[in-house]
Design a protein that fits this description.
heterodimer, A: 2 helices, disordered C terminus, B: about 475 residues, alpha/beta, eleven-stranded mixed sheet, two-stranded antiparallel sheet, 15 helices, 13 strands, about 15% strand
């Protein structure tokens, strides 16, 4: 485990901070799953988003065919 | 041929011509349910009494000249995430014990208005958060998984235990079980079919759509489902469209994109061969094949997870705190771990989605649609957790099944899964057609043309 990866105790503290107190027997499994999810989504940091806005709600038919302009 | 064996369009023709009564059809389907349910377990609830009453009403209305259209008197099943007034929406979860829907969902109301007859609610992977639907067995081999999350709906249609069904699709949950059970599944354009009254998994990825025996059947159901509903904030204001494909099978002039990346990587050899044979048939119908490179493939899984995980966790925020022990272990851990995802990761996924939509729009200027396998493997054994590919790579079963279907959820593009044969073990193989936003008609035309080159598809040999 690298030094930046979530430990079971840190997972428990993070969960408590968002209002989800975990029983002690959940610390390790939650930390393991959270590390896995993090490893999947972390590759998005490679992208240069420049001025790209998020698409939290969007209209699928309103495609911008001149997006590069 | 028994009435339950008829695909929707044939049953509708027979009902309209008064050669078949909706009561006979409902009785036949209910009898079939009685035969196959002990083996398949597709249904949570069978609404036999309601179905017989609704069928009698349909019979009376049609006899009195009040024929409503091709869904009138047709038995259907709804995934148990879809509200029907007065019945439970269990969502496959103990969390929903004692639930009772107060009102019809938008889609249930539209299908009822079209005269369709509800025969029951079908099993879903718990809250649609999974790709297997462990309660249900594959219609072609009960030792194999049904696929999910709309597993019950796909199995019911494949076995003749419903003439059509509805599913929901957040990463492939209509198309995956459709492919694994040899039936047609359509995930429409994001916003085309309203989701009001359907339990969400992930608001920005969720879709509702039909599961049917034939492409023409899917077109008939979509015609009844599509259209604006202000109660779904993503619902599009689109004009009414009759999606029924024309009779012709000529595809001359159509440009079909064949991916040279991603969609044929880590795909079972028999699945690839069946898909390429089907692509060859489309070419023989006049379509021009164009190789395309799929954009941003490295970021597909990350974007899907970055959107789905925090949205699902948000929906379950209260019950995860009050009754966590009622969730199944696989769903509970994803919901808990989702609490630890920073907002920055979610926004990055939202911005990646913007880029991906732009790149797919550019690709779809070069071609009219894309063809690809729906899933990289046929149905695995129940309980199997991973797939080992020829190069030794090991992939989780759910990761594998969602891999080829999730791009259409991220981009909101329509995707239609069509059966294209079976592997050596007799398990069905599906091909997906992906199109431009709101161009369902193109996908349905191509899928229907393909089906016309093949003998009529048989029901799963369930006993």
């Amino acid at each position: 485990m690298s030094s930046v990866e979530l430990t079971p105790l840190e997972a428990a503290r993070w969960a408590a901070r968002v209002g989800l107190p975990l029983p002690a027997d959940r610390y390790a499994v939650v930390a393991t799953t959270a590390r896995h999810i993090h490893s999947v989504v972390a590759v998005l940091r490679e992208l240069d988003f420049a001025d790209t806005p998020p698409a939290p709600a969007y209209r699928a038919e309103q495609e911008n065919h001149d997006a590069a302009v | 041929m028994q009435p339950y064996e008829l695909p929707l369009s044939a049953a509708a023709d027979a009902i309209r011509a008064r050669q078949l009564s909706p009561v006979e059809l409902a009785d036949s389907v209910l009898e079939r349910i009685g035969e196959v349910e002990p083996h398949l377990q597709a249904y949570v609830t069978v609404t036999a009494e309601h179905a017989r009453r609704a069928a009698r009403e349909a019979e009376g209305d049609i006899a009195a000249g009040r024929y409503r259209g091709p869904l009138h008197g047709i038995p259907m099943a709804l995934k148990d995430l879809i509200d029907v007034a007065g019945t439970a929406t269990s969502a496959g979860s103990r969390v929903r014990a004692n639930h009772r829907a107060q009102a019809d969902s938008a889609v249930a109301a539209r299908l009822a208005a079209a005269g369709a007859v509800l025969v029951g609610k079908t099993h879903t992977h718990e809250f649609a958060y999974g790709l297997t639907t462990p309660q249900t067995h594959n219609a072609w081999n009960t030792g194999r998984i049904a696929g999910g999350s709309s597993g019950g709906s796909a199995v019911a249609v494949a076995a003749g235990a419903a003439t059509f069904a509805l599913g929901t699709d957040t990463g492939g949950s209509i198309r995956v079980p459709a492919a694994l059970n040899g039936v047609v599944g359509l995930k429409p354009t994001y916003g085309l079919v309203p989701r009001h009254g359907v339990t969400p998994l992930s608001w920005s990825l969720d879709h509702v759509g039909p599961i049917t025996r034939t492409v023409k059947d899917a077109a008939l159901v979509l015609t009844a489902l599509a259209g604006h509903d202000p109660r779904d904030p993503a619902s599009l204001a689109t004009p009414a469209v009759d999606y029924r494909p024309g009779a012709g099978a000529d595809l001359t002039g159509l440009r079909i994109g064949v991916p040279r990346t991603y969609y044929f990587d880590h795909v079972d050899a028999e699945v690839e061969a069946a898909t390429r044979r089907a692509i060859g048939r489309l070419q023989s119908l006049g379509a021009r094949l164009v190789e395309v490179g799929i954009p941003m493939t490295r970021y597909i899984r990350a974007t899907q997870w970055g959107l789905m995980v925090p949205e699902a966790t948000a929906y379950h925020e209260n019950t995860l705190r009050t009754v966590p022990e009622l969730y199944q272990a696989d769903v509970r851990i994803l919901l808990e771990a989702g609490e630890l995802m920073p907002a920055g990761d979610y926004l990055r996924a939202q911005r990646a989605r913007t880029l991906m939509r732009q790149e797919w729009a550019r690709m779809l200027e070069e071609v009219d649609l894309i063809v690809a396998p729906t899933v990289p493997a046929t149905a695995v054994e129940a309980g199997q957790e991973s797939i080992t590919w020829a190069d030794g790579t090991v992939e989780g079963v759910s990761d594998a099944y969602v891999r080829l279907s999730s791009p259409a959820n991220i981009t909101g593009l329509p995707s239609l899964s069509v059966p294209v044969g079976h592997d050596a073990a007799g398990l069905p193989i599906g091909m997906q057609l992906l199109g431009r936003p709101l161009e369902e008609s193109v996908l349905l035309r191509v899928g229907h043309a393909y089906e016309q080159t093949r003998p009529a598809r048989e029901l799963a040999p369930t006993t």
